Amino acid sequence: MSRPHYTDKNSIQTLRDGLEEYYALNPNVTDPRKLPPEFAKILLAHDVSHVVYGCDTGMYDELKILPLTWWTSNYKFRDHLRTIKDPTISPAIRVMYDDLIKEHGVIWLYASIFFVLPQLLPELISMWSKSRKRECFVPFLDFEPLLDRSLLEIRQEFDLLPFLK
Q1: How far apart are CA 113 and CA 107, in angstroms?
Q2: Which one, of 43, 157, 156, 135, lies nearest residue 95 by Cα?
Q3: What 3-state class would DSSP assign to 132?
Q4: Alpha-carbon dihedral of residues 140, 104, 126, 66, nearest 10 degrees?
């Protein structure tokens, strides 16, 4: 199977179209548009991040997307910590975790983290270095104005191309 269009660094499809492609290719992912709005927004923002950053749902990209989001968007590590502690929103994180386990199993989850993390470490160091002097951050929760813009345009505006392969 060929790679999804949204993972193409120079994709001109809209964010909305990329998100539709993401859900079509990942039927195992819980669609936040069908969940209560109080925590669906964080799930949807995470899925939008997959599309904006051109990440699939393999363990390599799952481990890459969170630090990439912290370093290049307006959703920082401190926001993530608040989200985890918020009883209204924290169930969303459980939904993402449960989706991974449902698809692959708990042994796969932890074994793949163990094996993938050393491979990802050099890229994480490179991403961290590239993100140090950022002045323009991707809107994480307020992504709606970006939905009808091309992925290439978004990636150029927020200087994300150096982070995509």
Answers
A1: 10
A2: 43
A3: coil
A4: 20
The pair of structure tokens assigned to 51 is: 């599309």
What is the spatial distance between Cα 31 and Cα 26, in angstroms, rounded to a whole number? 10
Q: What pLDDT, on the 0 to 100 scale, is given for residue 45?
A: 94
Amino acid at residue number 143: F
Contact 13, 21 (CB under 8 A): yes
Task: With both helix axes pointing from N to C terminus, report the angle between 37-52 and 15-25 in degrees, rounded to the nearest 10.
Answer: 100
- Is the pTM of the predicted complex or chain greater than 0.70? yes
Cβ contacts of 60 within 8 Å, gap of 6 or more:
116, 119, 120
Look up residue 133 and give its DSSP letter: T
The backbone region for 54, taken as left when phi is positive above 0, alpha when psi lies in -120 to 50, beta otherwise, is left
State the Cα–Cα distance between residues 72 and 40, nearest whole angstrom.
22
pLDDT for res 139: 98
Q: What is the pLDDT of residues 37-86, one digit of tens each?
A: 877 888 899 999 999 999 998 889 999 999 999 999 999 999 988 888 88
Q: End-to-end CA distance of the chain, in Å?
A: 18
34's CB contacts (< 8 A; 6+ apart) are none
Task: Give the residue ranges of DSSP H helices in 53-146.
Answer: 59-72, 77-85, 90-104, 106-130
